[in-house]
Amino acid sequence: MKKTLTLLIALFFCIQAFAQIPVKGRVVDADGEPLPGVVVMQKSSGSMGAMTDENGNFSLSVSSADAVLLFTLMGYQDAEEPVGAKRHFNVTLKDDTTFLDEAVVVGYGVQKKGTLTSSIASINREKLSSAPTDNMSNMLGGKLPGLVSRQTSGVPGENEAQIYIRGISTTGTSTPLVLVDGVERDFSNLDPSEIADITILKDAASAAVYGVKGANGVILVTTRRGDVASTTVTYNASVTMSGNAEMIELLDGEEFAYWHNKASDLDGLMREYSEQQIGYIRNGNDPQGIFGNTDYLDLIFKKVAYGQNHNLSISGGSKSVRYFVGGSYLDQDGIIDNVWFKRYNLRSNVDINLSDDLTLKLDVSGRIENRHQNGVSAGSSDPTASLDNGGAEYGYKNIVFYALSARPTTKPMTPDGVYIGYQNPLAARDASGFQEKNRSFVQTGVTLQYNVPFIKGLTAKAMGSYDFQNTLQKKLLLPCDQVTPKYSSADETLTLTPGNSPHLASGVNQLTESHQLFSRYTFTAQLNYQNTFDLHEVGADLVWEQSGTSSRYFAAGKQNFAITEIPDLDFSTDVTPNSVRGYHSNTGRQGLLLRANYVYDGKYIVSASLRNDWSAKFSKSHRLGVFPALSLGWRMNEALKLRASWGVLGNDSISDFLYVQGVSLSTKPTAVINGKPVQSISTTSVPNSDITWETTTTYNVGADLRLWDGLLSAEADVFYKVTTNILQSQAGENPPSIGSNFPAIVNSGVVDVKGFELSLKHENKVGELAYTIGANTSFARNRYISINDSDNIPAYQSKLGQSLGAVLGYVSDGLYRDEQDLASSPKTSNAVRVGDIKYKDLNGDGKITAEDRTWIARSPIPEVMFGLDFNFKWRGFDAVLFFQGATNTEIMLCGTYSALGYSDGTYYTQAFKWGSNPPKYLVEGSWTPDHTDASYPRLSTQSSPNNVYTSDFWARDASYLRLKNVQLGYTFPKTVTRKFYVDALRLYVSASNVFTISGLSALGIDPEAPSVNNGYYPQQRVVSLGASLTF
Amino acid sequence: MAAVGVLAACSSVDLTPTDRYDLAYAMKNEANAQLYLNSFYSIGAQWGSFGSCALGGANSNLSDGLTDILKYGATAAGAGDCNLIMTVDGQQRVDQNYFDSWTTGYGLIRRINEALKALDTYKANFSNASAARIRGELLFFRSIVQFNMMRVHASKKDDLGIIIYKTLDEMSIEGKNTARKSLSESWDAILQDIDFACENLPEPASARGRVHRYAAYALKARAMLYAERYTDALAAVQAVEASGLYGYIDSYDAIFQDLANSEVIWGVAYSSAVLTHSFDMKYSMPGDYCLSGSKGGGYAGPTQEFVDAFDNADGTPFDASDASKRFITNANVSARDPRLASSVLYNGALWKGRTLECFEGGEDQKYMPYGATKSPGNTVTGYYMRKLLDETNRDFVLNGSYQPWPEFRYAELELIKAECLARAGKYAEARTVINDLRIKRFGRDDVYTAPISSWDTALDAILHERMIELCYEGHRFWDLRRTGRAHAVLDGKKYTGVLWKKAPDGSFTPSSVAADVAAHRYPERFDRFPIPQSETKNNTKARQNSDW
Questions:
Q1: CB contacts, 8 Å: A742 with chain B
Q2: B51 phi and psi, to 5 degrees?
Q3: Which terminus, N or C, of chain B has the lesser number of Cβ atoms within 10 Å?
Q4: Residues from chain B contacting residue A741 (CB–CB below 8 Å)
């Protein structure tokens, strides 16, 4: 209400009034910085006033010496100064917001921190913009207690972290709901300069207002808006230099020849490298130009990849119009040639006061993202994501995979310029074509807010938004010749077998293009009421929301282009079989929310909400879901608040129309009737007319502590979350005679999660040194409470009580020591020799079979996350030191490829697999007759299926502590910069991913690397230099 | 709240799918229902020689490869399954069931029962006549599936048939514990379906290429033969005969070239490059280079024993001790039953415009003895199949194979008739039926046909004629099995082939070679192949067949 008042006063500012005594002065804030826009008026005159200029100066006339000057500015406490004999006033305005009155963004509104009863965490602009990043999702880990993140890749534009709030609580979809300005939108590619704050809603009391979408937690992102202030122009520029943070160490040519020969000896096979060849490798003097010593990792990775980031924002405004306009440009090169990401963001958020009570907000933002990679992808975060790249066996192939595959004992190319080696990374990088993905987004929103004049505290608001995005993809795959050398040391003959590089074995070039158009509309109407009667603070909200999405897709491909310099479909008539596709889909959701808050005496707090949701994913009778929540708070005193909450949330992340018996029209003829090929209709999966919400009930107890005026503050939460009716595919065993007549997805299974979050903060100022130290940790442990397991599963294989993502495998028992050990120990069905991995026979039947598997490793998603940050400010200097870490997590070096569903050895566990270059640790630590105290199994050039089963032998603790960010900045004194018309100038240097302490570092593997992979694009270490200018 | 009411009226959740068809669409009218029915037509060929269940279970090896007439060269899984099953003890097990017709069958029955339920739900969209016809087609396909399941899994010893699920709703997780019906109850249920089809399917003229009533009668005849209900089987054959639409044609080869000849009662058609099978790719010879450069797989070859079984050109039995005539050449082939030249390719035969090189080192037989390599990729008997291969298809890799599959043909029905008559003791009539067929095939009215004086001699004649006439069509193994002769004919046997050696002067010398290392075995329990283990594990009432 004070805002309204201020504005009203300002409205009268222009009216010339009678005045006798001229006074003037300067208004500053607690730090001595001048405050522009402060309304200065004679108290109780109602009509006279002035506003401070950008230097905080004002002048006006008062009617008499008895007058009292009133200074008001939003966000500051009012100040009064009696005029008396004084004619010049130096006024300092105190910050208005006490800690407890700080506004926090919650669902469909803001709340005061002091009376908050739910569990939320937020991060503001200052912290977000302090570390450079090309992806917002990567900077949240360790900063927000309760948020679990895992960044598995460093590919520019595709290095998004997986984010979970309070871990995983369902076997279904676990990704949290992300809302940007109240609309479901992706936030990871917003520029940090656009964002005002990010809040995560963790418990039911905060997230239940989002009903069916809230079960996995909610991330609320608020973009920046303009204030009543003079125009501020901020320009920020940075240059980044990135390089691989961790990289595995492979053998060089000579070592490869040595170990390969040694392995061949042990296998009883002919050596592949003769002394003469080894000489060629060592000296590079092969007269045929084939043998050499090549470091392929060194060849494919640049030393440094450069990037730049610029953003310009203009904000300001008057009482009637306020604006934030910003644009940014990001250009990030990959550490591999031809890999890059460019992004252009634009945003305009405008607030217009149409009248005293009616405000119009008009938000338009747009974004273009251009991603470019080689025909063979640079390395996807999911080791199996690029399945379209080839057959199942080579599904995970990427350039790094090629580099690990290549033998270091040959030159990369023959003297004639033909790539040497079946999988040559240079061929993959330079001659495989390209793939590009261009995405463009337009996001719009219009909000009308009306402060109902007759009822104090009542506001009506309507918001409509329409977003659309286009995704255009183009992929040109080019064949490339290679020769595979085969050398026989017996007769010293070298044969070169020519062939196509395996990325396109057909040898026929292909061009594929696709286009997806996605749009979403959201409409929200709400009534908010907030008022205080004596000691009673009352609030109520009524919200109606509805949204719908639609998408359209088509794709086409042609092949056999005579020339490919201009890759357009027009230039061939040869349609790639099955490449022309098209479909569309749409869905919708609507909800009604009722919420009420009551606070007595600022001490006793009750909040309750009820959300009804209707989702198009379910049949009419199962469409309505009811999601209640209740929370209580007790503010014992200024220092301590206790709170508790309970609530029910939903999850409807399943395919559309599972309740409908769909039929599909065959794409090709399936019968020939009367001489004519005819199409046919057949039923798709069995419908589930009873399918309904997955339901999560959350209990949360928390305490907020703030001692010694912020010297120490703490927030602690303990929670328990149980998810029932999980939407999952029907497990369990059924006889074939019912012909699979059961729905693919049913509501079944129960999973629970328990955990806590704790964050501590120490904030102090010693002389001119201001510093904060923050520490936070979160823990979330999940387990299966009920699951459709087969009835006769042994107890040690039952999922019950196990955590989600845990790995089922064999228990290793060292290596077979000697022939006697080999003879007397149980074995798998594969041939084994001394030095191979021995497994425990859990069921005691004398053989190692699938029945002997049990739970051997934790999920790659950590149970514990922590962050520790130090912020210092001294005079113009500022410094940040941010550590981040995780524990209670394991990754598998080999095991089941998640998307392929089968288990096999990887380059990290099977030396010379597919002729690859093994990691140094694997051969140097391998078992050989003269190295029996070995940490890795028997050295061999042959595949030994026994040694690469999913077993605890290959599980690795993926705990880590990482110096995620260190930053040093200097802000030049205003007295200096003002001379150049610059309000503020800050220069900074920042480094991210500085070092990592982890058991995996010794192997050259990042602890966040994908579990079970054959080469991934490594996480990057980034150093940036930047400047920020404010005018 | 009024505003809320208005908003609720323009709901965003009352969506009907716009991106997919639902069941109502499939049953909207007769044209759409026909599209729906089209999805079941592949069932007609699934258990045939071009189908994915040619072995009987979900395996595309020809079941003739389990018998004395056809020999696969490979001993590896895939193209060597027949050899593994018949020569490796314990290869066929409950948990490694080559003859699991059950899982495939019930998957199809579920689909058919779904369609039957949909038909009931949307019956208002159809006239009574067209609803009956649609039901007839569905029940026809259901009975094909059930017949094939009975053929594999029924156990006479235990009087166990299959589980009969007539409606979709019975096939549920709640109702999963359901017992197998007795043999007679199972056959009753199948007969009921077929009878409905017989009565309600149209005449071929108005079926326009779709399933018609004589297809149903033919199925009835076959099924009732296996059910040992000879009266029903005979009546079904007579119904087909009475139509006057079917009869023998002059050319045996022509029967398999299209479905429009009067020997084919009903079959499944294919289309080049559009809807194809891979028979030629598997069974053509390695010298059969396609235009695209690929070559035939040479999976299997007829045995010398099969070749020996072809009578002399006058119908008298061939004397296999006569080595000069035993190994087929262009010179001696005409001295035999003309069906030999139609069914078997031999060294020197003219094929696709070239002379077949089935000699050691020849293009079509780079000879290696059986078992020497796991997948030789050429015949180990010195012969190849000719019947069912498409001589006109010069690129079976690029275009696939598209010769039609004649599921029911007149000759089979006549032989069923002969068997029914013989069962009824009408030996003379039975012999006449066989003789009529032989007159046509040998092309001479005075063909010798063995006399029939008892059930045993009748069965000798019938099985012999079925082996020759219906070779490679997937009958032999099941004929031996259902007549109780499988053990006697197959157990302990090793088969042979011919190896031609080419002399420098271009002349060829044959010698007999073993096509088997280990003897074939036919344990008694092969008379009833097990139902899948997952059935007995998860259906408390399902009984496994004895001895499995």
A1: 172-173
A2: -95, 170
A3: N
A4: 110, 168, 171-172
CB of B264 within 8 Å of any CB in chain A? no
Distance, CA of B54 to CA of B37 (rounded, Å): 22
CA–chain centroid gap for B37, Å, is 22
B166 in contact with chain A, both atoms CB, cutoff 8 A:
no
| A729 token code pair | 């595919």
When comparing pLDDT for A392 and A675, which is higher? Answer: A675
Instruction: For residue range A920-964, list pLDDT tens digits in order.
Output: 999 999 999 999 999 999 999 988 889 999 999 999 999 999 998
Q: Which of B3, B19, B39 sits opposite A682 (nearest CB)?
A: B39
Helix (H, G, I), strand (E, B) or coil at B6: helix
- Contact of A655 with chain B, judged by CB distance below 8 Å, is answered with no
DSSP state of B185: H
Nearest to B41 among A588, A671, A792 (CB): A671
What is the full DSSP assignment across A776-820? Answer: EEEEEEEEEEE----TT--GGG--BTPPTT-EEEBPEEEE--SHH
Q: How far is CA A906 from CA A9, A235, A262, A914, B459, in A?
A: 72, 48, 21, 10, 61
* Beta-strand relationship, A229-244 and A305-317: antiparallel
- Quote the radius of gyration of chain B (alpha carbons, Å): 25
Rounded to the nearest angstrom, the minimum Cα separation between B14 and chain A is 6
**Model pLDDT for residues A365-405, shown as the tens digit of each residue:** 999 999 999 988 887 544 444 333 333 333 357 888 889 98
Q: How far apart are the first and last CA of chain A?
A: 31
Instruction: Output the furthest CA–CA distance in chain A (Å, rounded).
Output: 114
Closest-CA residue of chain B to A736: B103
H or E segment to which residue A464 belongs: strand A458-477
Chain A residues whose beta carbon lies within 8 Å of the beta carbon of residue B18: 584, 586
Tell me the count of A-B CB pairs closer than 8 A. 190
Contact B3 A544 (CB under 8 A): yes
Angle between helix axes B427-442 and B410-423 (nearest 10 degrees) is 160
| Helix (H/G/I), strand (E/B), else coil: B440 | helix
Largest CA distance in chain B: 104
Interface check A674 vs B, CB under 8 A:
yes
Pairing of strands B384-385, B344-345: antiparallel
Q: Is A535 exposed, middle or buried (0-12, 13-18, 19+ CB in 10 A)?
A: exposed
Cβ–Cβ of A675/B269 closer than 8 Å?
yes
CA distances from A196 to A128, A593, A943 (A): 9, 26, 55
Sheet holding A57-62, edge to edge: A57-62, A21-29, A88-93
Grade residue A790 by pLDDT with cuts at 50, 70 and 90: low
**The token pair that represents A21 in the structure block:** 């005594």
Which is it for strands A79-82 and A50-51: parallel, antiparallel or unpaired? unpaired
**How far away is chain B from the Cα of A740, in angstroms, using its nearest Cα?**
7
DSSP A26: E
Contact between residue A412 and residue A501 where contact means Cβ atoms under 8 Å apart: no
Give per-residue pLDDT as tens, B19-74: 888 899 999 999 999 999 999 999 999 999 999 999 999 999 999 999 999 999 99
Closest-CA distance, B532 to chain A, in angstroms, reads 8
Residue of B nearest to A656 (CA): B17
B-proximal residues of A, 574-613, CB under 8 Å: 583-590, 592
Host H or E run for residue A562: none
pTM of the model: 0.81
State mean pLDDT over B176-184.
Answer: 95
As a whole number of angstroms, the distance between CA A555 and CA A474 comes to 10
- Tell me how far apart the alpha carbons of residues B362 and B286 are, in angstroms, rounded to a whole number: 10
Cβ atoms B478, B526 nearer than 8 A: no
- The mean per-residue pLDDT over the stretch B243-258 comes to 95
Residue with tokens 């084919």, as numbered in its chain: B264
